[in-house]
Every structure is written in C-alpha cells, then in structure tokens.
Design the sequence.
C-alpha cells in the first residue's frame, strides 16, 4: 500500500496573545514560527479586535497604561512602535479600544475608542491613525 503525503499549498498567518506570528499549513495544520512583534509586552492585554493587517503589514494595539501601536512589516519582519496620543478634543478618562480596522481606500487605520472602559454608556469615538506618522485624528463621529 502506497503512503500519501499531505502537503500544505499555502499557509495562514495567526497572531497569538503574546505577539507571536505563526504560520499554519492549510492541509497539514503544521504550526511554524514566522515572526513576532518586537517590544510587545507579553503582560499587556491584547484584545484580538485590535489586530488587523493589510497586504504589507500587521497592526496591533498594546494596552497597558497607554495604548501603543505596533506595526510589523511582513517582508522585512521589522517592528515599528509608538505610544498613541489622543486628540485634545476627546473627553477620555480610562479609554478602551473596541475595534481596529484597515481602510484600504484611505490608507489609514480606523478605530473605535470608548471614552471610559468601565461605563457602559460612555461616548465612543471613531478615530483614524496614520501608519506613517502615528498621528491620531478624530473623524468628528461619536456615538454611545
């Protein structure tokens, strides 16, 4: 009887809760290390809603005392990072990031920021983040 060999013809990339990026073979399920977000604090809270990507980069937000944006270049596997500064017109006391998405047409990250993570009725703001300058821009849209 001839043995058949299972071969992965492409891989999925996944990010775990400590900022490691792994490849998983589509047919084999084999997991191999791909890269990691250098400087990511494994004690930080990583909300998987705050992880996104585009064709070139992975993005994630580290939540400690301040929100910090990490950008991992898929080709070079280098990491850039910077603490985020929120616009002064926002009224935030203990913010919580609810969502991070890539907007391909604008080439910006978009996020929903809750002004107080412990208040279910607190205002949420729609923000844009430049992955080039790390500037955080308020879009003028808020809701609760």
Sequence:
């Amino acid at each position: 009887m001839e043995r058949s060999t299972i071969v992965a013809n492409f891989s999925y990339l996944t990010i775990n809760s400590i900022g490691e990026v792994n490849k998983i073979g589509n047919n084999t399920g084999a997991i191999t290390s791909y890269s990691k977000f250098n400087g990511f604090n494994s004690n930080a809270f990583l909300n998987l809603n705050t992880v996104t990507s585009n064709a070139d980069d992975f993005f994630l937000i580290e939540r400690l005392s301040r929100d910090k944006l990490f950008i991992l270049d898929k080709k070079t596997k280098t990491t850039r990072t910077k603490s985020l500064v929120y616009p002064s017109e926002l009224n935030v006391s203990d913010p919580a990031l609810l969502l991070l998405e890539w907007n391909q047409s604008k080439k910006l990250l978009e996020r929903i920021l809750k002004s107080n993570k412990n208040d279910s009725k607190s205002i949420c703001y729609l923000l844009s983040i430049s992955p080039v300058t790390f500037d955080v821009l308020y879009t003028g849209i808020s809701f609760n």
Remarks:
- The CA atoms of residues 72 and 79 lie 4 Å apart.
- The longest strand covers residues 96-103.
